[in-house]
Design a protein that fits this description.
This is Kojibiose phosphorylase. 50% of the residues are buried. The protein is 36% helix and 24% strand. The chain is α+β, with helices and mostly antiparallel strands and 727 residues long. The N and C termini lie far apart (57 Å). It has a domain of 276 residues: Distorted Sandwich (Beta-galactosidase, Chain A, domain 5). Helix 12 packs antiparallel against helix 14.
């Protein structure tokens, strides 16, 4: 039996302010953004951190739970799959003297929300009252276990301010009929299935209410409704303890209901204290392997810890069927779809701090390789063209039309034209191989990804009368310019992809000839095709001008209208909204890092001082219309030794999710931007780089940073690196 003191300890956040994000009061205009900022996740379950509120006679945490991989296609004309809503397992209602808690002006001032990042825990504190001003002090906590990812825990502690008060507490599971078809509902267990896919969901629940440490039996009013009533005593403390097990079934023969009951049975034995202790141990292990410490800049330290908290909570190394969406599991934007963000902005973090998670994310791309092959074939090419937006099968899930900022219908061409995604996936595969030396992955999955993406590019590039290969009709990272020819980013990444595939052919032939024989036979890959690949790599147009040292972003870019972005400082909307789509497309205004992104990924492609020249040229033309942009600029600026400029980019990226100056995170945190914060610190300021047989450092710390310390794993070695500012 657990006494109230134990609950009290759990509800007490760490006293180290470097590990805390805290906000008080209530602002309805910013509530959705704060729900994303204070979200908790373990890579399988994500729960938004909405505040505790009381309306309509109830006190309720209006959190929303997302389950990784629980996709369905709604029955509408667009038929775009997305993550589906799941029941809210945190619902609680309280009445005092028969009167519900009511809203009172100024109540928000008593409310406090604390994200304890060290423990992966959200804590709230409130003082609420009924119409007769009978008050109750509430403290709550909820987690989703990083140790047992199907498990969620809620603790609620309440202390009635007056004695001899009739108290009624009701707990429930709400939203049982939203977006899912019910299969089975019984006391403490429910099972549903999605409407148009084979996915199934089960939730098993167990609750205990204790008054001063003594269990109080509940009155069950329905399969998922519990009620308790008692008369308060002075100083009396009640605590509600709720454990849930949430499971996903992906096949018809799966039994998620049994899995949920079994999981709940396992954690009921040690109880919530055991669940909490295992969860905290798992977070300690993650922080030990991934923490970044900055001395001399508290704001930077907080930004890094916040980024790492969400990065560590976004991945699940045990599930190779899912990846990390653009907003992770903290919100609904982009319907839970996966973009190039994962491979370019997130995989470096996981490769160097959590290779098991990195492997699982890359195995998701291997499992969706058939979908990539089908997309390439459907567009008339060979090999594998990955979906620009991917859900569970690897099929393209990008919408064909959206409503633009000017409220007009806009055709979306990314799904067909933003093809650099295939090279981005290949880049992540090669980085993983360099960072881990995982031979089994390379032989069983990575090599096939590299070969099939190289085959796509060799099919996609066409020889012209000039004797050079061209790739026409694409979109680069700069999405302001569509249907362009010879995107420097796309073409150079495609060439790199082909060359790495040829490298892996040589590696397989030399070290694992039987593997090569089987794989090449299955793919129908012969020496004649490999020779054609080499020809494409040797002749593809890159847009580089040796006389100026500049890459032309795409054919004809230099002839477009130059617009001085300095004339638009202080704007609150993207440049394409300011200028209009037509003028933007005819200008040199760049949405986000494009050639600069190429410089960040493949710096060796920029000879002599051409890296600095390209950065200077394109940085002044970039409107940073994407949350991805500043991080890439920050990496490059840091490597170039422009540390104060890099720090500005670091601060700008940090502000996206940590500041309330804009409501841009209503739909979830920008997980790629958070990955970019780590990249700026480690790849930018520390100057870390991966090579075939070693790691390298070329540090340039901002003047205010006294030290920068971080951990990495490389080839099964765990390294602790600490850099000290030169005096």
């Amino acid at each position: 039996m657990t006494g109230p003191q134990s609950v009290d300890n759990a509800l007490t956040p760490t006293n180290d302010r470097d590990w805390i994000i805290e906000e008080g009061g209530y602002d309805p205009l910013r509530e959705a953004s704060r729900g994303a900022r204070f979200a908790i996740s373990n890579g399988f379950l994500g729960v938004r951190g909405a505040r505790a509120l009381h309306r309509g006679g109830r006190w309720v945490d209006t959190s929303r739970t997302l389950v990784a991989g629980l996709f369905d296609t709604p029955d509408d004309e667009r038929a775009i799959p997305g993550l589906v809503a799941t029941p809210d397992w945190l619902q609680v209602r309280i009445s005092l003297q028969g009167e519900p808690l009511v809203h009172r002006p100024g109540d928000g001032e008593s409310q406090r929300r604390i994200l304890d990042m060290r423990r992966g825990t959200l804590i709230t504190e409130d003082r609420l009252s009924n119409a007769s001003d009978v008050g109750v002090r509430l403290r709550s906590l909820h987690i989703v276990s990083l140790d047992q990812r199907t498990i969620g825990l809620q603790l609620l502690q309440l202390e009635i301010e007056q004695e001899e008060v009739e108290v009624t507490l009701k707990a429930s599971l709400e939203g049982l009929d939203i977006g899912l078809v019910s299969e089975r509902v019984e006391p403490g267990l429910a099972v549903w299935h999605t409407i148009s896919t084979a996915r199934r969901l089960a939730i098993a629940v167990g609750l205990t209410l204790q008054i001063d440490g003594q269990d109080i039996p509940a009155t069950r009013t329905g399969p998922f409704h519990w009620s308790w009533s008692w008369k308060s005593q002075r100083g009396q403390v009640g605590s509600l303890q709720r454990l849930v097990a949430i499971t996903r079934g992906d096949t018809e023969d799966a039994d998620p209901g049994r899995q949920a009951l079994d999981a709940l049975c396992v954690v009921r034995k040690p109880g919530w204290p055991g669940v909490m202790a295992a969860h905290e141990r798992a977070w300690i292990a993650r922080w030990d392997g991934s923490d970044v410490e900055v001395e001399g800049d508290p704001a930077a330290q907080q930004a890094l810890r916040f980024a790492l908290y969400h990065l560590n909570g976004a991945a699940n190394p045990a599930d190779e069927s899912v990846s990390i969406a653009a907003r992770a599991l903290t919100g609904d934007d982009y319907r839970g779809h996966v973009f190039w963000d994962t491979e370019i902005y997130l995989l470096p973090f996981y490769i160097l701090t959590w290779p098991e998670a990195a492997r699982a994310l890359l195995m998701y791309r291997f499992r969706t390789l058939d979908g990539a092959r089908e997309k390439a074939l459907g567009m008339g090419w060979r090999g594998a063209l990955y979906a620009w937006e991917s859900a569970d099968t690897g099929a393209e899930t990008s919408p064909s039309k959206v409503i633009g900022p000017d409220r007009k219908v806009v055709n979306v061409r990314c799904g067909k034209q933003e093809q650099h995604i295939s090279a981005d996936v290949a880049y992540a595969v090669w980085q993983y191989w360099q960072g881990t030396g995982d031979e089994i992955f390379l032989r069983d999955a990575g090599a096939e990804i590299l070969l099939e993406t190289a085959r796509f590019w060799s099919s996609r590039a066409q020889v012209d009368t000039d004797g050079h290969c061209h790739i026409r009709g694409v979109i680069g990272p700069d999405e302001y310019h569509e249907s362009i020819n010879d995107s420097a980013f796309t073409n150079v990444m495609a060439r790199w992809n082909i060359l790495r595939a040829l490298d892996v052919v040589g590696l397989l032939r030399e070290r694992w000839p039987q593997t090569w024989e089987r794989l090449s036979g299955r793919l129908g890959l012969d020496d004649g095709e490999l020779k054609q690949w080499r020809s494409v790599a040797d002749t593809i147009v890159t847009g580089f001008d040796p006389s100026t040292g500049l890459f032309e972003q795409f054919a004809g870019f230099f002839a477009l209208e130059y617009i001085d972005l300095g004339d638009y400082l202080g704007r609150s909307v993207p440049m394409d909204v300011v200028l209009g789509r037509d003028r933007t497309q005819k200008s040199q205004v760049v949405k986000q890092a494009d050639v600069v992104a190429l410089l960040a990924l493949l710096p060796d492609e920029f000879p002599d001082d051409s890296g600095a020249k390209n950065f200077d040229y394109y940085a002044e033309r970039c409107g940073h219309g994407s949350s991805l942009s500043r991080a890439i600029h920050g990496i490059v600026a840091g490597r170039l030794g422009r540390t104060e400029l890099a720090l500005d980019y670091f601060k700008g990226t940090s502000a996206i999710d940590l500041e309330d100056s804009q409501a841009s995170i209503d739909g979830g945190v920008h997980i790629a931007g958070l990955g970019g914060i780590w990249l700026m610190a480690v790849f930018g300021f520390a100057g870390l780089s991966l090579h075939s047989d070693h790691l390298a450092l070329d540090p340039r710390l901002p003047s205010g940073w006294k030290t920068l310390a971080f951990s990495v794993q490389w080839r099964s070695r765990k390294l602790k690196i600490r850099l000290v500012q030169a005096t």
